[in-house]
Amino acid sequence: MAKENFHREMLSIIEEIKNSNIEHKPKLLLHACCAPCSSHCLELLAQTFDITIYYYNPNIHPQEEYFRRLEELENFLTIFPVAVNNQIKLVKDDYHVEDFFTATNVQEEVELQVEPEKGERCRRCYQFRMTRAWKFAEEKQFDYFTTTLSISPHKDSKKIDSIGRQLEKLSRGKKLKFLPSDFKKENGFLRSLQLSDEFNLYRQDYCGCIYSKLNQKK
Question: Is the pTM above the cut of 0.90?
Answer without folding.
Answer: yes
